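Recall the central idea of this unit: under ordinary conditions, the amino acid sequence of a chain determines the structure it adopts. In this exercise we apply that idea directly, starting from the sequence alone.
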Amino acid sequence: MKEKRIVIVRMRGTIGVDIRIRKTLDLLRLKRRFSASVFDDSPSIRGMIKNCQGYVAWGEVNDETETIVATRKLSPPRGGINSKYMHPKGDLGYRGDKINELVKRMI
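Accordingly, the structure predicted from this sequence is:
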């Protein structure tokens, strides 16, 4: 059985941010805005996401989106970002399957 995988997309910069959050983003291989990484869903990755949840969007990835992230560089999303500050209504935080739509807008 295939293990569940998640994609993490960095949505905000880190000017004036605590060094622990910056270090966590570096460990997740999210060096700059609008970069993305795919990981196996594990408690350690979830803990790292929890540490930097105000700067990233994440959710379950499908196979098509996983190949896009592996082969292409992402750009800012077409249509803009809904909100970087409101977690339930904006593009930050847990997005579930909608993360695939966000990544497709960033091609």
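The two ends are 30 Å apart (CA to CA).
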